[in-house]
């Protein structure tokens, strides 16, 4: 999963399936030059969208098999959300 704001090109990684989530950032928040602030905002605002997307992927109705979650250490919320879904 990555945010809609991410510039990653998923076609560069053909063996992975990417799902995007909304980042919830306002235009001014997204355009900040303060990278520490931006990461802090993302760690707060992406929790619920990530939780919902992960729950959907792990549900019995999902057609996709989840092999693993690869998380970036800067986004600390991913680990706690993943732990809650065990």
Lay out the secondary structure.
Elements: E1 2-3, E2 20-21, H1 27-30, H2 35-45, H3 47-58, H4 77-84
Parallel strand pairs: 1-2
What would you note in describing this structure?
The protein is mainly α. The chain is 41% helix and 5% strand. The protein contains 4 helices and 2 strands; from the N terminus they run E-E-H-H-H-H. It is globular. The model has no long low-confidence stretch (mean pLDDT 86). This is UDP-glycosyltransferase 76F1-like.
SS-derived structural category: mainly alpha
Number of strands: 2
Name the poorly predicted regions: none
**Number of contiguous helices:** 4
Number of domains: 1
The fraction of residues in strands falls at: under 5%
Helix content: 40-55%
Largest sheet: 2 strands, parallel
Radius of gyration: 14 Å
N-to-C series of helices and strands: EEHHHH
Compute the separation of the termini in Å.
Answer: 18 Å
Report the principal-axis shape. Answer: globular
Biggest sheet, strands in spatial order? 1-2
Mean pLDDT equals 86
Key terms for this structure?
single chain; 5% strand; two-stranded parallel sheet; UDP-glycosyltransferase 76F1-like; mainly alpha; transferase activity; 4 helices; 41% helix; 86 residues
Brief summary of the model shown:
With 86 residues, the protein is mostly helical.
């Amino acid at each position: 999963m990555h945010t809609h704001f991410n510039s990653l090109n998923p076609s560069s990684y053909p063996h992975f399936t990417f799902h995007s989530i909304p980042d919830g950032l306002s235009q001014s928040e997204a355009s900040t030059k303060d990278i520490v602030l931006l990461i802090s905002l993302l760690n707060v605002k992406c929790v619920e969208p990530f939780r919902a997307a992960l729950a959907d992927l792990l549900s019995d109705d999902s057609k996709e098999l989840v092999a693993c979650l690869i998380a970036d250490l800067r986004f600390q919320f991913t680990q706690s959300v993943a732990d809650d879904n065990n």
